[in-house]
Amino acid sequence: MPSSQPDMRQVVGSDDILLVTLDTLRYDVACELAAAGRLPNLARHLPGGAWEERHAPGSFTYASHQAILAGFLPTPVGQGPHPRLFAAEFGGSESTAERTFVFSESNLVAGLAGAGYHTACVGGVGFFNRRGALGSVLPDLFTEAHWSPELGVTSPTSFESQVALAEDIVRELPADRRLFLFVNVSALHQPNWFHTEGATAAAGDSRATHAAALEYVDRHIGRLFDAMSSRRRCFAIVCSDHGTAYGEDGYTGHRLGHPVVWTVPYAHFFLQGPE
């Protein structure tokens, strides 16, 4: 079911904004877990309790995030044009609509900073680790950016650490300052075998361990939502940047053209602030 289109010209400047990319999350796994009641904290916010099916703007993290952070969120299925929430000024754009927040800057982060937002990044996978020039491109878009091994793909408690850091960012920001918080969740990305009890590194990752990693994220994401709605209403976007293959048609991994990579779950919704 397509998400309703809020008037982002009214949202920007009024609400805090949260963008969460569940890195590598597959659409089919996300839907199965939501339908089975295994994602209680996420499902209560999903419109109709279900994920929306969309197409990723890229087949791996760097490409997809370059697009997402320029305003090209995953695209609804079916022929467009599909109105976008955010768009840079660009002559002839068919997806810029009446309710789109249009910015003159080259990327969404700078556009929101220009609208008075403090922009903060909680990194996850290696493209946010600032351990080289390539790993600095995306975090350098933000006023404040964080990464450590505790937030990365090899940590079994990565998302708990990311949420704690996000809580600190919210707590330390002046109450009258609007916040754009971006969180790249690393827990779904390989290796994820350690999210299944009794699993071993030798057995490796699987569709089942991928699902277990999403359940792990769901157990802690309520704290993130609570933090982001503690000051005022928050507009939240939760989506995957791309999927990944676990042997389908002989493919493993991503950065390849297969439906399990290109098809992603998406949702946006409001988190109501304090009464």
UniProtKB/TrEMBL annotation:
SUPFAM superfamilies linked to this entry: Alkaline phosphatase-like
Superkingdom in the source lineage: Bacteria
Hydrolase keyword on record: yes
Pfam families in alphabetical order: Sulfatase (PF00884)
Annotated keywords: Hydrolase
Family: Belongs to the sulfatase family.
Official protein name in the record: STM4013/SEN3800 family hydrolase
The species this protein was found in: Rhodococcus gannanensis
Organism taxonomic ancestry: Bacteria, Bacillati, Actinomycetota, Actinomycetes, Mycobacteriales
